[in-house]
Structure formats: structure tokens, C-alpha cells
Specification:
heterodimer, A: alpha/beta, 2 domains, globular, B: Rossmann fold, elongated
């Protein structure tokens, strides 16, 4: 990887940008059940949605937002780098290719149940063309007070300096809710996604904030399945990442070889077990909270 | 979806990967149909989705026909980790020179497929020694790469050819069936130098099944599970007596852990996801109502995506219709939660502000009702 992917530049921009804090966003699947509901909610939060895409509905509009047949068509009228993908899983790969071909640099991939083969092909395609996927099966990303691209409720999040990275959607809300209640705001909250293959994994998420001076702490919400947490610990060790980190791992009492809701949440032998992840974090002295509600007090102690 | 061994071996046969001569029997009369044809010794293998059957004594060698009936009956009645077999695989034993290990799996961290091979197979992968892990492309696995893997294992001649052919065929199987894992452990080298798959462990990507109607016949889930999946939720039956319902896999897992820490015993995991309506939540309670072991239900809801007042209505309906009678301990936060609380105030559902409070009361209730 050559140039560092700057998610804040894409989501927020620089003060000298004419659209600073108001970056344009396209919603793919805007007229669908899910897409339409969340387009409304994102707009209410302040996200600048300039266009929507639904094949065969080009020329229509959704609550004043013009709808196009493809991102390709939309990009003739708008210069957009962000897309929220709300299409059904079986159309995901085509949606990604359309977006990447049209200059989209950040693809927030909401759909659940995307086949692994399609996800891998989509990631390859994005990477080859210098674009980044969040997800699939992610709740999206929110920069409190600026914008949100995704399905997260707005209430749990307040502006601040902590980064929240979570493999689970609802736990991202739950943890942020507890943080906010304790007065700890978030600079960014980002969902990794519940699938086995993630466009942005925990390490890449840490990379997004590693040189952001305003980010003063990180909460990482892991869960059983795979070895993302173990790899993250190696990264933290190797890079000497040194701002306070609190971890949480869901699924300590989950049985082996049973998929616990998320496609990626499954333990085989010791691979993917909560014990493996917790002992990795403990090895580098990262405190692992036992309950989401404990996280703020642990973090406050570290911040003293 | 994890295939049973014999199902995996059916796929192996389709892909021309050699397996022992074998038969299947669900009961004694099916066994009788081919018992006279068997060449002893044979190996009886219980067909289970759970692991650890070797250690649990669910694989039995049978030296003679006299042995067959009692050992077959023993296996049919042997429970392994709570699972009874529906079918037994009977294989004629083969003369083995050596056992290897071979698998192809989706390497999640590296976002690619990896191949693991070892000259020492037969035990759990965690205990396999001298294993070589290499990243491969399942669509670009060439003869040359397969041959180099054989060479690294010190194989030569007929065995190297046979082995590298199997590597190529296994990659084709993984690619065409969208498998997350295909493991042959052990892969036997026979006296004549050729390789033969003694076991098969294949996991198919559930989300790709819509593209593989031919694999649907391998889906083996309980009726309850099927009912749950049709309604769009994830359901896992567990061993205890507390059903845990919520929106989001991570949140429900987290709740499971807290219940466990508080001394409660979860009996069901049910995540109804973000698209729940009154109807789907009612259906979730319907699934739970069919588990007679459940003594209480814990609902942990983080609102925002799902309207919590819709959940409250579903709970009221479920009580009114007599579908459930056990108490519900609920923590509901987020969109419309004040309204939800008000709706439930006169029901058998108790509402709490934090999940910890709900769990404490629930566990106390279970303790009292013993």
C-alpha cells in the first residue's frame, strides 16, 4: 500500500474546501425499503445526499433527491467520492463495480448475506482502483456532528475525541451510548462488519486514526470468530501504538462451531475463541471490559 | 453449512477424489440389505455435525459380521455433545502406508484462501505437526504449484502425482461450491502409492446457497431453526433455561455473557436483526414458546433501527393469545422506548433501564422458582 487512506479527508474534508463538513454522498438502492428509510434519517442528521441510484428508476426523484440508473450516470452530474450501498446482497458486486468505476473512493457496504466470493472480488476490485470498502454487513460510519453514512441511530453518539471500532452494529451503539452518557464523545465510530471478510479490518481502522492528533483514545469492540483481534494486538505491538485502548469481546459463553448470528461469529477449536482474543489483549496490557457498561470507567482511569 | 462426512465424500466422488468403498444405513433393516456384501474389517462412523467423535468413541472398527449388528446399534444410540446420529457410514478398511493432512480454507485475516499440508495427518489440526501454510488463489492453482506442494512433503512418483491431482480437484471443489473449508484429514497413502480421502470436512458459505440449488439437499437444521430462519432471524438453541432475544448478534452475544456471569443458564440465542416488525417479533416469541425448557425470557433491545413500541405490542399480543406464559424481563432503550414502557406496564413483562438490572431480577426469579 502506497498512499495512506485518509477517511477524514473524504468524510469531512479540509477547512479550505468549499464543501468542508458537507461532503456529497450517493445512496445506491435509495428507493428500496431500507435505503429510503435511512436516506431520510441520514439527511436529518446532516449528511449531504446529492443523488440516489436505483436501476430502471433513473429520472425519478426521491424526496427531492434525483435518482439515476447507475452511479456512472449520477457522476456525470455530481463529483462524489462517497457512496452508501443499500442494495440487496445479490446485487452487491455489481453495485461496487459501478461505484468504483465512477470514481467513488469510500464505499459503505450495508448489505448482510453477501456471498464470500462476491465480497472478495469486490474488495480486490476496490483495492486495485484505489477505493476503500467498509463492510459488508456494517452499520456504517458516523463522524458525530458532521455526518453519518449508515443505519446507526443518531442518539447514542456525541462529538468528542474517542474512536470506536466495532465488529458488531448494535454493540457499537450500545458502547457509544455508555461513553456518551459518561461524557466521553466520539471523533468517529466505525462498524467493521459481521462477515468473515471485511473491506476495512481492525488494523486498517486503527491506521485511519493513528496520525490524528485529536483522537485521544480507542475503544475496540470485538467478538468471537476469526483472528482480527489477535492480528490487531500484533499491530499494536509492532507500531508502538500508544494512546489508551480499551477492548471488549462478545461471545465468551458462546458454544463452539455454532454461528452466533453474524456469518463471521463462529469458533473452530481455539481459532476464533473469546479466550484467545482476551489473552492477546491482556498480553499487551490492554484492559478487556467484561460488560459494555464498564468501558467508560476503565477508559477514564487510563486517561488520567 | 457444515456437511456431514458422507455428504462431503459424495462431493469428493463427484470431483473424482478417491474414497473407500462405503455404505450408508439409517437403521438395522437398511444395514441388512448390504451386510452380506461387506468385506471385513469395516469401520462404522457416526455421522454428526459436532466435532470430537473419534475421542467420544463414535468411530468403531468391526472385524467380523458378528460384530456388526451390536456395534451398529451402539453407535446409533451414542450421543456426542448432545447430538445423536441419523445415519451411520460403513466403510471397508484399507491398508495404509502413511497419513497426510490437506486442507483449503478461507483465511479471513489475509482475505485469501490458504492451503495447509502436512506429512503427518490423522489428528486435530491444532496438533498436526510440521504443517505448511501457504496462500493460494483457488482459481489460479496450477499443476506446477500442486506439484511443488507434493515435493515439499517429500512425495515422489505415483504418490506425488496422485496427491497433486487431489490438490487441484479440491481447489476446483472449493471454487465451484463456494466452500469456506475443505479438509481431508487424514489423506491416506495406500500400499500402491495412490492417495485416498479417509475423512471429509466441508463447510459451504451459507450466503452463497442461492447459487447452488444442488447443495440444498445437504441443509440439515431443526424445524425450529428453519422456522426462525424463514422469519429472518438467527436462532441457536443452548443448554439452559433462559431465552435471550435482542436486536443484533453482538448485543445478544454480549447479553449471553452477562447472564452467564450472573449465574444464569442461557437456553436460546435469538437475534431478530434490524428489520423487525410486530409480526417478526411475535414470531420470535413463537419460536421460543416451543422450547418447553425455557423458564423466562430476557429481551435486550437497543432501539433506533427497530421501533421498540412495535416490540412491546408483540409482547402484549403473545400474552393475550396465550402463546407464552413465562415472565419477560426486558431492557428497552432507544426510539419510542418511553411509549414501549408505558404499553407494557400492566403485563407480565418487567421493564428495566439497564440490562444488568433486568438480568439480576431474572436470575433471582429463576432461583426462587426452583
Amino acid at each position: 500500500m502506497s498512499k495512506k487512506f485518509d477517511i477524514f479527508d473524504i468524510l469531512v474534508g479540509k477547512p479550505e474546501d468549499p464543501d468542508y463538513g458537507n461532503k456529497p454522498v450517493i445512496i445506491q438502492g435509495i428507493t428500496g425499503n431500507f435505503g429510503s428509510v435511512h436516506t431520510r434519517l441520514m439527511r436529518e442528521y446532516g449528511t449531504n445526499i446529492v443523488a440516489g441510484v436505483t436501476p430502471n428508476k433513473g429520472g425519478q426523484s426521491f424526496e427531492g433527491i434525483p435518482v439515476f440508473d447507475s452511479v456512472k450516470d449520477a457522476s456525470k452530474n455530481f463529483n462524489v467520492r462517497i457512496s452508501g450501498i443499500f442494495v440487496p446482497a445479490q446485487f452487491f458486486l455489481a453495485a461496487v463495480k459501478d461505484a468504483v468505476n465512477s470514481g467513488i473512493k469510500l464505499l459503505v457496504a450495508i448489505p448482510e448475506h453477501v456471498p464470500i466470493r462476491d465480497a472478495m472480488e469486490a474488495l480486490d476490485y476496490a483495492q486495485t482502483n484505489g477505493a476503500r470498502i467498509l463492510g459488508p454487513n456494517t452499520p456504517g460510519v458516523i463522524v458525530p456532528k458532521i455526518n453519518k453514512i449508515g443505519i446507526m441511530p443518531s442518539q447514542p453518539f456525541i462529538k468528542g475525541n474517542t474512536a470506536v471500532f466495532s465488529r458488531s452494529g448494535t454493540l457499537m451503539y450500545e458502547v457509544s451510548f455508555h461513553l456518551s452518557k459518561a461524557g466521553i464523545g466520539q471523533r468517529i465510530a466505525l462498524g467493521i462488519g459481521g462477515d468473515p471478510i471485511n473491506g476495512t479490518n481492525l488494523i486498517e481502522a486503527f491506521d485511519l486514526i493513528s496520525d490524528r492528533d485529536e483522537v485521544d483514545s480507542v475503544v475496540v469492540v470485538g467478538e468471537i470468530g476469526g483472528d482480527a483481534e489477535e492480528s490487531l494486538v500484533e499491530y499494536i505491538e509492532k507500531t508502538g501504538f500508544n494512546i489508551p485502548v480499551v477492548a471488549y469481546v462478545a461471545g465468551r459463553s458462546a458454544p463452539k462451531e455454532k454461528r452466533m448470528g453474524h456469518a463471521g461469529a463462529i469458533i473452530y477449536g481455539n481459532y476464533g475463541s473469546a479466550e484467545s482474543k482476551i489473552s492477546s489483549f491482556s498480553r499487551v496490557n490492554i484492559t478487556v471490559a467484561k460488560r459494555p457498561a464498564e468501558i467508560p470507567s476503565i477508559l477514564k482511569k487510563l486517561m488520567k | 453449512m457444515k456437511l456431514l462426512e458422507f455428504q462431503g465424500k459424495e462431493l469428493f466422488t463427484e470431483y473424482d477424489i478417491a474414497i473407500p468403498k462405503s455404505y450408508l444405513a439409517k437403521n438395522q433393516s437398511e444395514l441388512n440389505q448390504f451386510a452380506d456384501k461387506l468385506e471385513f474389517p469395516v469401520v462404522l462412523k457416526s455421522q454428526l455435525t459436532v466435532g470430537g467423535r473419534g475421542k467420544a468413541g463414535a468411530i468403531l472398527k468391526c472385524m467380523s459380521k458378528e460384530d456388526l449388528v451390536p456395534k451398529f446399534a451402539e453407535l446409533l444410540n451414542k450421543e456426542v455433545n448432545g447430538e445423536l446420529p441419523k445415519i451411520i457410514l460403513i466403510e471397508e478398511a484399507v491398508d495404509i502406508d502413511k497419513e497426510l493432512y490437506l486442507s483449503l480454507f478461507l483465511n479471513r485475516g489475509k482475505r485469501t484462501y490458504s492451503l495447509i499440508s502436512s506429512g503427518q495427518g490423522g489428528m486435530d489440526i491444532e496438533y498436526v505437526e510440521n504443517k505448511v501454510i501457504q496462500d493460494i488463489s483457488i482459481s489460479g492453482l496450477t499443476q506446477a504449484i500442486a506439484e511443488s506442494i507434493a515435493k515439499n512433503l517429500g512425495l515422489s512418483g505415483v504418490t506425488a502425482d496422485s496427491f497433486s491431482n487431489i490438490v487441484i480437484k479440491l481447489a476446483k471443489l472449493v471454487r465451484e461450491n463456494e466452500a469456506e473449508l475443505a479438509e481431508i484429514n487424514p489423506l491416506a497413502i495406500l500400499r500402491d502409492g495412490t492417495c485416498l480421502a479417509l475423512d471429509a470436512k466441508i463447510i459451504i458459505d451459507d450466503n452463497s446457497i442461492f447459487r447452488h440449488p444442488e447443495l440444498r439437499k445437504y441443509i440439515q437444521i431443526s424445524e425450529l431453526q428453519e422456522q426462525a430462519e424463514k422469519s429472518g432471524f438467527s436462532f441457536v438453541e443452548l443448554e439452559g433455561n433462559i431465552a435471550i432475544i435482542g436486536n443484533g448478534a453482538g448485543l445478544v452475544m454480549s447479553t449471553l455473557d452477562i447472564v452467564n456471569d450472573a449465574g444464569g443458564k442461557p437456553g436460546a440465542f435469538l437475534d431478530f436483526g434490524g428489520r423487525a416488525t410486530t409480526e417478526t417479533i411475535y414470531k420470535a416469541l413463537e419460536v421460543i414458546s416451543k422450547l418447553s425448557k425455557i423458564k423466562a425470557i430476557l429481551v435486550n433491545l437497543f432501539g433506533g433501527i427497530v421501533r421498540t413500541d412495535l416490540v412491546a405490542q408483540a409482547i402484549l399480543d403473545a400474552y393475550k393469545d396465550g402463546m407464552i406464559s413465562v415472565p419477560i424481563y426486558a431492557r428497552i432503550s432507544g426510539a419510542e422506548s418511553d411509549k414501549a414502557k408505558q404499553m407494557l406496564s400492566n403485563s407480565n413483562a418487567k421493564l428495566y433501564d439497564t440490562v444488568e438490572e433486568a438480568i439480576t431480577s431474572l436470575v433471582q426469579y429463576i432461583g426462587r422458582s426452583k
